[in-house]
Amino acid sequence: MKKVLFATLALSTSTTTFAGGFSLGSMGLGYSGYPETRFNVMVTGGQASQATTIDTGKLRGQNYIVNAGPTGLDTQKRSARLAAQYQVNSRWSVEVGAVNFGNSDLGINVTPPAAKVAQPQQVAQDVYDATVKRGGDRAYTAGIQHRVPLTRRLDMNVGAGVVSWKDKQKINVNGTGYEFTAKSTDPYVRLGVGYRLSKNTSLTMNSEYYGLDKPVTRWEAGVAFHF
């Protein structure tokens, strides 16, 4: 009789691929009517999307029998980002930040090959290796941003940089949990607009792309504070 193994995993993700493009902080008198500022703090919320899945073909190639699943493959997650910018001049800024890509709970029901029935940790490792890495609850970014003034209050912003992420997953095999981690540094790009409300505040909206194991796309809206 074959022993059926139930494997479930909880992925910690970090989707809103974060970045947001708002460098409305350093609009000089010539563009916005406000004195130039040097420091910007951005707080945003939005949604991150990623093709989260478990590669059943890879498991079958290792002689696993996939009985059911995978489940929980929702690709859209709430995302938040916090970032700080320093305006080098009225057009260019450097930025560091933290972004959350969201969490996923996946499930799959598999029967391992006979040689691995008594090796639950190896089974957990195989399932983890076949699972898309989301990027963790917190990913960190560093990059540059270019501001293009459109009107006295409205800007377009283009940014690029790198995102450093750490993925944590817990794989449960027949009631026993095994934890695994992965980390990497990948590129991101961002395109957005910002609308200056006053000397110290702006509204911002951005679209971002993060080049993770499976790419993450993200949109966000929020507020920028200028000092």
In short:
The chain has helices at residues 56-61, 120-129, and strands at residues 5-12, 39-50, 65-71, 76-87, 92-100, 104-111, 139-149, 154-173, 176-196, 201-210, 216-226.
Please provide a written account of the structure.
By secondary structure, the protein is mainly β. Helix content is 7%, strand content 57%. It contains 2 helices and 11 strands, in the order E-E-H-E-E-E-E-H-E-E-E-E-E. An 8-stranded antiparallel beta barrel has the order 2-4-5-7-8-9-10-11. The longest helix is centred in the middle third of the chain and has 10 residues, at 120-129.
Number of helices: 2
What distance separates the N and C termini? Answer: 69 Å
Order of helices and strands: EEHEEEEHEEEEE
Mean pLDDT: 83
The largest sheet is: 8 strands, antiparallel, barrel
Low-confidence stretches: 1-31
SS content category: mainly beta
